[in-house]
Amino acid sequence: MDLERKFARFGDGLSVTEDAVIEGYASLFGQVDQGRDVVQKGAYAASLAGLKAAGQRVKMLWQHDPAQPIGVWDEVREDERGLWVKGRLLESTQKGREAAELIRAGALDGLSIGYRTKRAVKDDKGRRLLTELELWEVSLVTFPMLPSARVAAKGTDPDAEDTWRSIAEVFQSARQELARP
What we know:
By secondary structure, this protein is an alpha+beta fold. It has one domain: Alpha-Beta Barrel (Serine Protease, Human Cytomegalovirus Protease, Chain A), CATH 3.20.16. The protein has three helices and nine strands. The protein has helices spanning 45-53, 94-105, 158-179; strands at 4-9, 15-16, 21-28, 37-39, 59-62, 65-78, 82-89, 110-122, 128-141. Strands 1, 2, 3, 4, 5, 6, 7, 8 and 9 form a nine-stranded mixed beta sheet that branches. Strand 6 (65-78) and strand 7 form a beta hairpin. Mean pLDDT is 80; it is low at 152-165. Keywords: Hydrolase, Protease, Viral release from host cell.
């Protein structure tokens, strides 16, 4: 199976602090994204347990580029709402510094998970219900796919975030239209 990516804005309340710590939701359960996928509760459990047993971590990357790690996820867990992450941007790296400043300025508010689908089923509405995922990485990205999860720097205007979310949705729709044969 190929590595898949699922874009999401960081969850409610994600912020970057002065010491470049970020936290929030990378994925929300039960919500249909623009690719008509729905992550189900428990989809990450086996993957997270396997990583922990092997002493490994989910990677924090810049725009899915494996050559550009920008920090570390210190905590990645499922709760009732979704996949919650907490980590540190490494401001000792150029991209880490850039990412921290972009989040603080409100110019960057997206996350994308890199994963392999282990189990999924189609429902009667043509949606793919993702029941087990092998999580590889969580990236900071410009345009996320799941509009209801987002990142916000402290003091960001929620109405401005809605505007940027709408713009990202337009770009995603245009990208999908251009990809059609």
